[in-house]
Write a structure and sequence with these properties.
Shape: elongated
Number of domains: 2
CATH architecture of the largest domain: 3-Layer(aba) Sandwich
CATH topology of the largest domain: Rossmann fold
Radius of gyration: 17 Å
Largest sheet: 5 strands, parallel
CATH superfamily of the largest domain: HAD superfamily/HAD-like
Distance between the termini: 10 Å
């Protein structure tokens, strides 16, 4: 029996993935690295521990890595965060889930590794993984949920194709698309 929905935030409920990528590009440029947006964008959602080695070859726990992570956070908060907006249908989707008696749970990898953040959200919700569905927008969300034994719904709103979201039980364009198909969706069928 379905008891709760875990929502990823970035790219799933809030249109923020491009802003995260651009804040990394800005940070790298300030530090003298030429890393193009197109190289960073597909890495958004995997965490700085993997992004830094893949882009500039340094560890996140090195002195330079820590400095870059801190600066990226500042740039994101100052330049991009004030302009972020929810994806169309985000609020309505969360309200619909709640009106169906399901617990709405937030999981984000913004400060944690993906799986660690997801497991923490499950633990805090006090709901067993088999009674949850996670909605995410990246392959990293799908991978973390699968490892945690949580079923997933994928959103293309994060910029990934259906192939990139492979493993999700259902895939929608974003919150508004899921809402439009809610009654026939995995959530709608199980919430009855």
């Amino acid at each position: 029996m379905l008891k709760g929905i875990i929502f990823d935030i970035d790219g799933t409920l809030v249109d923020s993935n491009d802003a995260h990528a651009q804040s990394w590009v800005d940070t790298f440029a300030e530090a003298g690295y030429d890393v193009p947006f197109d190289a960073v964008r597909p890495l958004i959602g995997m965490g700085a521990d993997k992004l830094l080695p893949k882009t500039i070859g340094i560890g996140h726990d090195s002195a330079e890595g820590k400095k870059l992570i801190k600066r990226r956070s500042e740039i994101f908060r100052e330049r991009y965060l004030p302009r972020l907006r929810p994806l169309k249908g985000s609020r309505e989707l969360v309200l619909r889930v709640r009106s169906d008696g399901l617990k709405a749970i937030v999981a984000t990898s913004a400060k944690d590794k993906e799986l660690k953040g997801l497991l923490k959200a499950i633990e805090e919700s006090d709901i067993e993984p088999e009674h949850l569905i996670m909605i995410g927008d990246t392959p990293y969300d799908i991978e973390a949920a699968t490892k945690a034994r949580v079923r997933t719904i994928g959103f293309r709103s994060g910029g990934w194709t259906d192939e990139g979201l492979k493993g999700a039980l259902e895939i929608y364009d974003g919150p508004a698309d899921l809402l439009a198909h809610y009654d026939s969706s995995l959530i709608g069928r199980e919430a009855k």
